[in-house]
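Summary for the steering committee. One of the milestones for this cycle was to obtain a three-dimensional model of the protein with threonylcarbamoyladenylate bound, which we needed before selecting residues for the alanine scan. The sequence and ligand used are listed below.
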Amino acid sequence: MKTRVLKVDPSNIDADSIREAAEVIKAGGLVAFPTETVYGLGASALDEKAIRKIFTAKGRPQDNPLILHVAAVSQAAEAVEFFPPNAKILIDKFWPGPLTLVMKKSSKVPSVVTGGLDTVAVRMPSDPVALELIRCSNVAIVAPSANISGHPSTTNAQHVIDDLSGKIDLILDSGPCRVGVESTVLDLTISPPAVLRPGGTTLESLRQVLGNVVYSPFLTERPSQPRSPGMKYAHYLPKADMYIVRGNIGDVVKKIRALASEYKKRGISVGVLATDQTASEYEGFAVLSAGNRDRPESIAECFFGILRRFDKMNVSIILSEAIDAEGVGMAVMNRMEKAAAYKFIDA
Ligand code: TXA
Ligand code: MG
């Protein structure tokens, strides 16, 4: 299949391009489209055959449920049995935006979307191109991140081309994603509500609105043998073997320099994932800065792209500085831990 790429200017959206993409959705095809978090791979929520194609294109396990993307609250209402009281407050405050709500599903949602669960995950993205596409398709759009299953998520159209060209009908290219990590997934079927995946909406901001919100115990679960992660943990993996170096930042820099020199001596190509504050400390090594460690949003924005750049540089080892797990830093560390298959080095 030939994958077409249509460029769309997000500040001056071309109606013809959106119409073309919406026609593909309505006809049962797959369209990769930008959201504020990462690119999504969309299909019509009413078309089971199209939804199955998503799993095939990504190589995604069938039991991993998909997020339903809506452009209106009424569309979300149709997908759920009822809105719990918390949902209304959260929708008012955080939609459109990077917050996915898990609620009891209605009978209208095909079970292929939810992997057989009786709950459905729903979000309203804030990206104007995403919203226009959903509106113009006249249907909710189910979409996982637009990457091969197990690879880092995609935050620009080139990433999507690298992973999915030839496997999907169309890519809407409106440039890089603003947030860079996926939405926060919040389970509203339990009390207190629990964050199943930290993301673009911080725990701190959820607590300001709801009071009691917790991280799900599943989040802190670790595989027993970190060096051989189960399928469940195979996420965001770069080609290289990645290690997270943690501790006081001064010690971290020293430790990484020592390890990198050692690898270099042995002829092993190593990449250092650093921050703006520290990148200059690694002169002589292949170093990429993810952003400013005092502004975790800046690191979130670039993180997946940096993993993909290391893939292109063909390094065998990545040594990554840990950052503080506060605010969006929590989402970044969650992705970093998975990318490193939970391998840590204490500085
Ligand atoms: O920002 C995002 O959420 C992006 C963009 C494209 O919207 N989408 C995304 O989709 O990250 P995906 O499929 O890569 O991740 C969806 C996450 C998975 O961890 C999945 O297990 C969880 O949401 N999920 C979906 N439905 C669920 C449900 N009913 N109960 C619990 N978790 C669910
Ligand atoms: Mg994903």
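Key point for the committee: Residues 56 and 205 are 36 Å apart (CA to CA).
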